[in-house]
Specification:
Helix content is 82%, strand content 0%. The protein is an all-alpha fold and 142 residues long. It has one domain. Helix 2 packs antiparallel against helix 3 and helix 2 packs antiparallel against helix 5. The longest helix is centred in the middle third of the chain and has 37 residues. Keywords: Membrane, Transmembrane, Transmembrane helix.
Length: 142
Amino acid sequence: MAKPLTDWKCKVTIFWWTNALLAVISLAMFFVPMQASITMFVFIFVIGVLHQLVTPIQWVMMSDTVDYGEWCNGKRLTGISFAGTLFVLKLGLVFGGALIGWMLAYGGYDAAEKRRTAPRLASLCAIHDCSGDLLFAERDYR
């Protein structure tokens, strides 16, 4: 699905609009009632498909950047480019895990608790649905 789309439009445009659509769908998922499990599964399926669309485009854009750097400077920096990207990806996983832990602590989450109260359930839904949207919006703010 990524190849026909990137043949039709610029990779950066497809990447940006797919991420924007992911943010909108994730935010909309926050407002789906908990009893609407089929709707939730549809949202999760669409989000999964969109993530599978974004990932190859991201890696192709990195290799295009390496090719452009070689064309401009005569040096190919593939190792630095991919190692730097993987480092930042792992750093994002670390901060993402910490952010989830902080949000759970702020929401008063207790793993031993048998019954979840409405505020705790709302904080769990916010972590799942809205945390990515906030980071996406912050990225474009700069």
